[in-house]
Amino acid sequence: MGEPKLRLQGVSQVYEGARGETRALQNMDIDVAPGEAVAILGPSGCGKSTSLLIAAGLRVPTQGAAFVDGVRVAGPRLNTALILQDFGLLPWKTVAENAGLGLQIRKTPKRERAERVARALEQVGLADFADAFPAELSGGMRQRLAMARALTCDADLLLMDEPLSALDALLREEMQDMLKRCWCEQGYAQVLVTHSIEEAVYLGQRIVVMSPRPGRVVHVLENAEMQQENWRDADLFFERCRALREMLRDIVAKEEVAHA
Length: 260
Ligand SMILES: Nc1ncnc2c1ncn2[C@@H]1O[C@H](COP(=O)(O)OP(=O)(O)OP(=O)(O)O)[C@@H](O)[C@H]1O
What we know:
Residues 6-237 form the ABC transporter domain. It comes from Slackia isoflavoniconvertens. One of its GO terms (molecular function) is ATP hydrolysis activity. It is a single chain. This protein is an alpha/beta fold. The protein has eight helices and ten strands. Adenosine-5'-triphosphate binds at residues 15, 17, 22, 24, 42, 44-50, 195, 213.
């Protein structure tokens, strides 16, 4: 690999809380190539969200560092987009205003902002809802709006923390298709944090499997076939999900023995 788009190098995170220290991450290393889609899978509380916040420049790790294009991440970066579980939509702003928030922060001129917002809303199928408010949207539409906001910003790195977890199964698959389509069309590097084995296998060219807390990388699974047509129905898709399920069970069982 040439210079990675994103590198997490020796990242450890210890949180100091009222109930003492929590070691969330321990010596985590990940490289994500430009244009690559990586899924991070791991048990609840293993530090997945923490690793994204560090990559986004919203948290400075206790040890180690994140680098984007070889530059140490010291704060939020203009071309890194982050989509969180609750999408971060502002209820008092319209769909178009929400989609244009990133551009507004960048002080993009109004006319250009309107054009880029219109294009992004078109891309995610929300063009007819530009003047609606978030409360009038379904869960899937809110997800698409969060995506539109990321698309307007010409992100070269998209970080997503469980963006589909609130959706029902069918809608979730539809949104997974949308995420895959946008990634194919736009060519940004993408890191998706998820609890869902199927989602990781559907959307990750590489799947990073983490241990229970303190989270570290225990497996990296190549999954280049995710670009195949009808991948969700392929025998290999099911086999890969099964292999991952066993891997995760194994990891959790080993930890339980270690802590017994
Ligand atoms: N700001 C904080 N202060 C104190 N502890 C925190 C903070 N943020 C996270 N933690 C703790 O760090 C650990 C890792 O949390 P994190 O949210 O990164 O994990 P996760 O793998 O994303 O979890 P989940 O899959 O349940 O969303 C957890 O034990 C959590 O309680």
